[in-house]
Amino acid sequence: MIDTTASQTSPDSAAPSSARALRVAVVGLGRAGVAHCVMLANLEGCELIAVADPRRAARAGLRGMGFMAPAFPRIERLLEKARPDAVFVCAAQGERARVARAALEAGVPVLVERPMSRTLAEAEELVRLAAGRAVPLAVGHPLIFDPVFARVREVVRAGTLGPVRQARSAMFVSRVFAPHPRRGPGRLDPRHVAGGVVAHLASDLLFLLVHLLGAPAEVRATWNLLYGAVEDELHGMMTLADGTEVGFDSSWSVPGYARASTVLELEGRDGKLLASDEAFELDLRRAAGGYPEGATRRRDTEFDSPARFDFGGEALWLHDAAFLRWVAGGPAPPNEGSAAVKAHRAMDALYRSAAAGGRAVELA
Amino acid sequence: MRQPAFAAPRLLLSARALDGATRATRERLLEIQERFREPESLAVTLVKAVDAGAEGVLASPSPVLRAALAELGRAIPLCAVLPALRAQDYRMLEPGVEALLARARQGAGAAARFSMAWRGLVSRAAFRSGDFAARVPVLLEAEARLLPRRGVMGVVIAAPLTDAALAGRHRAFFDSVARFVRARFHAPAGFETRNPGMLLKRLREWGARPDFVVGPLNPRGLGMKPSAAETLAELGRSEVPLVATELRASGLCDLDEGARYAREHGAYGLAPDLSEMDEVVVELRRLGAVPTREP
User: Fold this and answer.
1) pTM of the full predicted structure?
2) The pLDDT value given to residue B125
3) Domains of chain A, each with CATH number or no CATH
């Protein structure tokens, strides 16, 4: 796989490069869609030329923020009239596969929010479609672009820790404490969404784990359904092909996490690594990879922050820039569809295990 | 620099950590929120801060802040960040102003609802659903009920709204909201941002002139979007005063260094946060002595 995050240390290298501005559209104007519109408005080398959402109020809301791109109720009309160079698909989970498929069939590169579809079968189909037509498909996984976790990726790829023997990870946020936030058109109704906290939030961490350590061979999981029909907490253990155990905890119903918080702990033959949104700590038994023997600690704020617009952090700007660079002819980002679908398979297996009361589920 | 219609503040105590809106570690934010969980302890700190030279407090009128102000027999000048939402509240709502309005209506009494409806009708905002320029003033009308009767020294639009409108290049929003705030609250209008260089540049290009902007400025360049160099260059050109926050760059430097740097590089005012100080009185007194840039 071609590295893109490593080269994103300066704004110039992060911006898409093309002879003309890329014409980009956003479909689905919920929170994620609006955040992408904000990023696209602040990325050089691209232009937000159209948006789509079936809800008139959502279209009016974006226009009310000052975004004057033509708005359509449906993607088919958008593709026909606006002819974008790329589409960001942020539609409701139950709609994503259909919307992404429409764009891919029209030969338009797609970045689809995570999870890319409600079911694994739909995700696999999208990846096959994109590959068959040689159209870029990426999935929204900004965590891997966060400067701290991008550094983790470099450390693991360089083998600085030696073979990783054990990993623990967690992603928490304080969000769902009552059934109330579940109201709305199909929100958190299992018939319309892939799941709860993992599908909506922690699949970003799951993607990072799979990307760093490889896909699991077997998973076991338990879940807690505190407020409704999808999981509010999931505790998983994944076993890799070489026997490495990877712990995975997630919850959106814990107090004290105003911002989403991610922690990753890796124990290798040659040292340990502890990374979070706030710090990077490496403890090596011998000097390696440019790091000295012993402890190295860096705060998140000590890393480069090349994003040129902040609307909730560094990662989203870098993430969107990497995708557009790919569309403009640059290297594929780490979150390309064929890589992201491996995390989707792991998520599907975790859900099957939890639904079966923690029974071990093997992945092909 | 032309004299602004209303003077921007020179020194504020920021209590944005209580709203979860400060760039600090989770542990530090929880510590601050725990320390000031009781209104009495916050009230004492606010009084001491003002006595130590702060002109007022930069904060959202959250329940804990209102309880603290109610404890006091004297008015503490408040530079109110509106809408009064915590960082996580924004994530629970649909984007845009309509969800904020719906939420404000739920919490409003009959008088506030009438004020909102009246404001919507006279400004024709009721017919411009979603439009920040028309509807944010209606939202501010609803939020007015949260403000103390005396002592509102400024109204600052919170960064999530400012930065969305900034990205949308919504010049009319900055004009109309500043006009509304001055007329309605008889106080200066500010805009909080996480992109100070970008906002100052756009305001200059548009010829828009709010009374001040609140945003990060520190020796490490942290949060100075689009880049530290461009933000500093813009500070040299802009006629809109900047009240600098995040002076300690999330703990990477000390407060004195951050304050000196901010003043030397063109900050008009300083707003150190509760999360950046251990001895509020001592540190505010010291900051009051840092030379200021004359307009």
Assistant:
1) 0.93
2) 64
3) 11-141 (3.40.50.720), 163-268+334-362 (3.30.360.10)
